Amino acid sequence: MGEVDPAFVQDQQHRPKLSIIQAEGIPQIDLTPILQHELPNPSTIDTLVKEIGSASREWGFFQVINHGVPLSLRQKLEEASRKFFAQSLEDKKKVGRDENNPTGYYDTEHTKNVRDWKEVFNFLSKDPTFVPLTSDEDDDRVIQWSNPSPQYPPQLRDIIEEYIEEMEKLAYKLLELIALSLGVEAKRFEEFFKDQTSLIRFNHYPPCPYPHLALGVGRHKDPGVLTILAQDDVGGLEVKRKTDQEWVLVKPIPNAYIINVGDIIQVWSNDAYESVEHRVTVNSEKERFSIPFFFFPAHDTEVKPLEELINEENPSRYKPYNWGKFLVNRKSSNFQKKNVENIQIYHYKI
Ligand SMILES: O=C(O)CCC(=O)C(=O)O
Ligand SMILES: [Fe+2]
């Protein structure tokens, strides 16, 4: 392992710094006011909506506590993820991803054409999930993606499915708060999720002998609506701070979730909220595990700024685009290392 594999080496300007800034500023938001057993109190909800609005505007990232997801379930899932990755490569590849179906195990992901120091296991919220066959605008054929059936650890599928239900509940609550913070109806976005394309991912970042050259995940923005991330206590997620463009570490808080707004909320909000760049550093001693839930709408969703927010002073900044086509375009460019930039929302800027 002493040899440096050039596929993992980041360009000089993207290599992680050895001195890390702790992002104490990333807002921590207490969701107690919307917990099921609490009687909704309009003034505390109003305060919460304002907190979520400013966090989305100023950071694009925040952490939530008292979110209602049972800790025992999260622990069960984290343990299952560790057991899954502890298997031999041969066993993991039995549920390997292929070019036609992005679910299952995968260890050669690239972000911006540099290989990520990680292995992943992807699992869809809905089985089957409907997506376009190709990213070609004129091709209206639709196919189904489905989930693998891992044999080990036992009950893995059941545990993931139970956890996904909790993720969806939390995602809908957060989405309502975000809608209110933008001044639109709480349920404004619900219609887009009937046939959602959401997925959950297990990430495993093994110790890396050259953490100053490689990254667990290279800098990127999340393309969907929201990401709900469970990280362990090792740390490594860095966010690009909007005020000064410095990379700052997101401090692990036990049992909290890290939420970030994705590209679709940036477009819906017509740039009021920003999908912020982030990356993952690795270290030479400790392995790290994380589990993001990517909340994605139905494939036939036309993504465009909300009409309610558009007027003469605030004209639409994006041309509409089709989510399914965007997703499929991304999947194929991440699967195959291509020496061109993959699709980005700024390609739809007016
Ligand atoms: O592992 C993490 O902390 C974040 C991973 C991430 O950004 C992603 O999978 O999109
Ligand atoms: Fe991400």
Task: Outline the structure in words.
- The protein has 350 residues and is of the alpha+beta class.
- It is built from six helices and 19 strands.
- The chain has helices spanning 42-58, 71-85, 89-93, 156-181, 263-268, 323-335; strands spanning 21-22, 28-30, 61-65, 104-106, 110-111, 114-115, 119-124, 129-132, 142-145, 199-205, 217-220, 226-231, 237-240, 247-249, 257-261, 278-280, 288-295, 302-303, 321-322.
- It has an eight-stranded mixed sheet with strand order 2-3-15-12-17-10-7-4. Strands 1-14-13-16-11 form a five-stranded mixed sheet, with no helix packed on it.
- Helix 1 packs across helix 4 and helix 2 packs across helix 4 (156-181).
- The longest helix is centred in the middle third of the chain and has 26 residues, at 156-181.
- The structure holds 2-oxoglutaric acid (AKG) and fe (ii) ion.
- Fe (ii) ion (FE2) is lined by residues 220, 222, 278.
- Fe (ii) ion binds at residues 220, 222, 278.
